[in-house]
Amino acid sequence: MRRIARGGPAQAQPAPPYSEATLAALRQAMAKAQGNASRALQLLAAEQGLELSYSTLTRWIRQAEIRGGTPRAGEYVHAPGQEMQLDTSAHRVRIAARTLSAQCAGLALAYSRRLIVQYYPQFRRFEAKQFLLAAARFNEGSARRCVIDNTSVLVASGAGAEAVFAPEMVAFARTLGFEFMAHAVHHSDRKAVIERAFRFVETNFLPGREFADFEDLNGQALAWCREVANAKLKRALGMPAEAAYLIEKPYLQPLPAALPPVYEVLDRVVDLYGYVSVQTNRYSVPERLVGKPVAVYVHPAEIEIRHRGAPVATHPRLIGQRDMRHVVAGHHSVPQRAERTPRIEEQLLLRGDASLARYAEHLKRRPPGHAARALKRLLELSRTYPREPFLAAIEQALQYGLFDLARLETLILRHVVGDFFALKSADADPDA
User: In 3-state terms, what secondary structure has residue 281?
Assistant: First the structure.
């Protein structure tokens, strides 16, 4: 039996099955294909004339330790109170028996994973301020940094490290004790804590739930965050988010003594009907202000309207609704309906026989323009033909429900012929 001594010479590694030139072509193709092996296989065949099987190509890639595409992001470790992450996602929700698209805004503390989500019909800077203030109240403070993507809601220009944030949002964040940081483009894994949370919201919170309105939706979302999302055990932490939050809370930036107000001011002119329009909805204003300029203060839950600095109307804000009106009692007087003056034709006809008045009442039931023409024509007939044949024809027309004025005139003519002309029948004897 042959014995191999310990510590003997190491066995030589087998030479790679490709040449240096092939390795260079392989690296070039992988770089051009951005790490996609299938596309690199096509490029090697088209540009280098190198025909390989897919399994051979992937084996060579492993042997040469070629890494293409975006490198693995790795794991981010956050200290308590250091960071929170903000993002939005479009979700389909059931509100008032309708399926709507709503913007889900979510914020998570990076250390404890404590989550808050709220929904809005749209997400602008107004809603961003509203949500950030709600999140600060929910957490009773803020982390020192808020990581976001490069959304134009918060970023005025640039992206990533060169991002320039909107001044009004920077000032609002400073009041709550934090500053924004935008991650690099296409690196959403930088805020993986909130990204993963959205999946949990879609699969656990939304299924099987219906909501009366956005207020009901956000109330249930807040309760779900407290009772389900933040009470769930986090394997990475070894405890629920709510327990980790108790560790993180002392490191958060405390809420300021005076919280920043959230509102926007719009300039409007009261329309001729006594309303101002805000996002397709209309809110009543005292009718004495018709045609005058007013300032509309839009708050998260109400609409306040001022004229020359003095408040003139306050309305609940119609959220998630379109083309609706809200009227405050007393703003608009009820218009008095003037009694209709009968037409001159009607007045003249009603002075006559009762049967003629009844016939005229039937004609008045026609559409407005047709009724006027019919009454005018009836008055002409009453003036054209003798009174007695005319009224006799009216009586006969009422008896048979005949209100075609052409046929009425035929009846009148028959009565006229019978009263004034002794016309003989064609069968009568001419010598009789």
Answer: strand
Phi, psi of 329 (to 5 degrees): -60, 135
What is the rounded distance in angstroms from the CA atom of residue 276 to the CA atom of residue 284? 7
pTM: 0.63
Domain assignments of the chain as residue spans, ordered by start: 20-64, 83-251, 264-326, 344-420
Domain 83-251 sits in CATH 2.160.10.10: no
User: Tens digit of pLDDT per residue, the chain (432 long)?
Assistant: 444 444 445 454 555 676 777 888 888 888 877 777 777 788 888 888 888 888 888 887 877 777 544 555 456 778 999 999 999 999 999 999 999 999 999 999 999 999 999 999 999 999 999 999 999 999 999 999 999 999 999 999 999 889 999 999 999 999 999 999 999 888 878 888 999 899 999 999 999 899 999 999 999 999 999 999 999 999 888 999 999 999 999 999 999 999 999 999 999 999 999 999 999 999 999 999 999 999 999 999 999 999 999 999 999 999 989 899 999 999 988 766 555 555 666 666 666 677 788 888 888 787 777 788 888 888 888 888 888 888 888 888 888 888 888 888 888 888 887 665 554 544 445 454
Q: How far apart are CA 27 and CA 150, in angstroms?
A: 32
